[in-house]
């Protein structure tokens, strides 16, 4: 049974995956593998990838070597946009020390098969959803702290808004407690993601 | 039963000392009795943590994550058998990844000290520190561990309230009459 946070349900609200791959046959293969479950957008060069990326995109699969803007430049654009999309480099380029400063979530060296690609997207979506829920938890906690700082206990006890926020916090806790615990790698990726304050 | 006896399995405790540096000894004293101990140190070198911890809870193993950021790879620590030191780096992501992995590796109920939350806020943001605390606190609850999160020196009251929302109790060490403990689940807790 899909978890409440899971957005990979094709009938209701499928997640959107952007495939940026200059080898057209390979891009078509990835699209065919993913299209049964997700909305898929395809770009064959970096500039098109930037143009097809927006806040609706949940996952980006990026080749590093593409005509025009490289995958690294597309990655920088995605991170600058701050949408929280998960990004995996899917590339023939073996990783070197330069990857340490890059903001991707996963790095996969080609070739990849269908199972690996689907698993990769599922991992990135799970992380993104968990991260989104914790961010919502933070935002509600922040509002509660603001009210508590400026209102008396009596005022808070009579406040419908305060009660609503507390209920919202509990609801998010409920969502997250039903989820599998994030792996150490998930936690690292979550904490590397840009946050709302910066 | 004292207030501190509330810190049963699964408890996450924010330990605040605005005036001084008593948080770490306070926390280490309360890790005694755990099956194993984990200390994440952002400010104090691992050697000093091992020395402090060695004076307490000698029966249980000790793992220190040295996250001060200027420690070389060849770290030498004279600790008792069962003491290990890792250097994950100073970044919040690296620390979070290493701390969660250490909790997953814990044999039995761990006593955990995160020293200090204030440094994580300084190095990143309140939101990133909150995310780290939230994830760790969930791990602690599910694993039946006990964790203490220190915050020393001047701290913004709203920041403390926000961070407290991820945890269960708050201990203040500032009072003249000894530590004061309160649950963080109540309505409009007084500062």
SSE layout:
The complex is a heterodimer of chains A (198) and B (191).
Chain A: E1 16-20, H1 24-34, E2 39-43, H2 46-52, E3 59-62, H3 71-81, E4 86-91, E5 106-109, H4 114-150, H5 153-157, H6 160-177, H7 184-192
Parallel strand pairs in A: 1-2, 1-3, 3-4, 4-5
Helix pairs in contact in A: 2-3, 4-6, 4-7
Chain B: E1 12-17, H1 23-31, E2 36-41, H2 46-54, E3 61-66, E4 83-86, H3 92-105, E5 110-115, H4 117-123, H5 126-143, E6 146-152, H6 157-164, E7 169-172, E8 180-183
Structure description:
Chain A has 198 residues and is an alpha/beta fold. Chain A has helices spanning 24-34, 46-52, 71-81, 114-150, 153-157, 160-177, 184-192, and strands at residues 16-20, 39-43, 59-62, 86-91, 106-109. In chain A, strands 2-1-3-4-5 form a five-stranded parallel sheet, with helices on both faces. In chain A, helix 4 (114-150) packs across helix 7 (184-192). The radius of gyration of chain B is 15 Å and the shape is globular. Helices cover 34% and strands 23% of the residues of chain B. In chain B, strand 2 (36-41), helix 2 (46-54) and strand 3 (61-66) form a beta-alpha-beta unit. Chain B has 191 residues and is an alpha/beta fold. Chain B contains six helices and eight strands. Chain B has an eight-stranded mixed sheet with strand order 4-3-2-5-6-1-7-8, with helices on both faces. At the A-B interface, helix 4, helix 5, helix 6 and helix 7 of A face helix 3, helix 5 and helix 6 of B.
Rg calculated over all Cα atoms of chain B: 15 Å
- Strand adjacency order, main sheet of chain B: 4-3-2-5-6-1-7-8
Q: What string gives the helices and strands of chain A in order? A: EHEHEHEEHHHH
Please report the number of helical segments of chain A: 7
**Number of beta-strand segments of chain B:** 8
The dominant shape of chain A is: elongated
Assign the CATH class of chain B.
Answer: Alpha Beta
Structural class of chain A: alpha/beta
User: Strand content of the residues of chain A, in percent?
Assistant: 5-15%
Structural class of chain B: alpha/beta
The two chains with the largest interface, and their residue counts, are: A-B, 37 and 32 residues
Kindly give the count of domains of chain B. 1
Q: CA-to-CA gap between the ends of chain B?
A: 24 Å
Mean of all residue-level pLDDT scores of chain A: 88
Summarize the amount of helix of chain B as a percent range.
Answer: 25-40%
Topology pattern of chain B, helix = H, strand = E:
EHEHEEHEHHEHEE
CATH architecture of chain B: 3-Layer(aba) Sandwich
The profile of the biggest β sheet of chain B is:
8 strands, mixed
Q: Taking Cα atoms only, what radius of gyration of chain A do you get, to the nearest Å?
A: 19 Å
The quaternary structure here is heterodimer
């Amino acid at each position: 049974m899909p978890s409440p946070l899971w957005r990979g349900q094709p009938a209701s609200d499928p997640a959107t995956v952007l495939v940026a791959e200059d080898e057209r046959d390979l891009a078509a293969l990835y699209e065919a593998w993913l299209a049964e479950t997700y909305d898929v957008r395809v770009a064959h060069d970096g500039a098109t990838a930037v143009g097809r990326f927006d806040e609706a995109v949940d996952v980006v699969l990026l080749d590093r070597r593409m005509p025009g803007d490289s995958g690294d430049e597309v990655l920088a654009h995605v991170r600058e946009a701050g949408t929280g999309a998960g990004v995996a480099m899917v590339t023939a380029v073996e990783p070197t020390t330069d990857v340490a400063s890059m903001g991707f979530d996963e790095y996969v060296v080609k070739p990849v098969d269908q199972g690996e690609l689907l698993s990769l997207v599922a991992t990135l979506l799970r992380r993104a959803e968990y991260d989104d829920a914790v961010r919502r938890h933070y935002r509600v906690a922040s509002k509660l702290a603001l009210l508590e700082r400026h209102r008396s206990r009596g005022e808070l006890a009579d406040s419908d808004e305060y009660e609503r926020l507390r209920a919202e916090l509990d609801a998010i806790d409920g969502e997250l407690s039903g989820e599998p615990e994030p792996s150490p790698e998930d936690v690292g990726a979550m904490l590397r993601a840009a946050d709302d304050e910066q | 039963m004292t207030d501190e006896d509330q810190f049963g399995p699964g408890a996450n405790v924010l330990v605040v000392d605005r005036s001084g540096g008593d948080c770490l000894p306070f926390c280490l004293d309360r890790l005694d009795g755990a099956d194993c101990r984990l200390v994440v140190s952002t400010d104090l070198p691992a050697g000093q943590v091992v020395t402090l911890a060695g004076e307490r809870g000698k029966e249980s193993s000790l793992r220190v994550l040295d996250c001060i950021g200027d420690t070389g790879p060849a770290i030498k620590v004279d600790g008792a058998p069962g003491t290990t030191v890792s250097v994950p780096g100073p970044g919040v992501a690296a620390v979070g990844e290493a701390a969660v992995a250490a909790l997953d590796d814990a044999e039995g109920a761990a006593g955990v000290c995160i020293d200090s939350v204030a440094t994580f806020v300084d190095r990143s943001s309140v939101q990133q520190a909150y995310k780290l605390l939230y994830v760790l606190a969930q791990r602690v609850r599910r694993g039946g561990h006990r964790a203490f999160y220190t915050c020393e020196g001047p701290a913004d009251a709203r920041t403390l309230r926000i961070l407290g929302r991820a945890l269960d109790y708050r201990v203040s060490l500032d009072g003249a009459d000894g530590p004061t403990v309160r649950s963080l689940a109540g309505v409009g807790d007084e500062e």
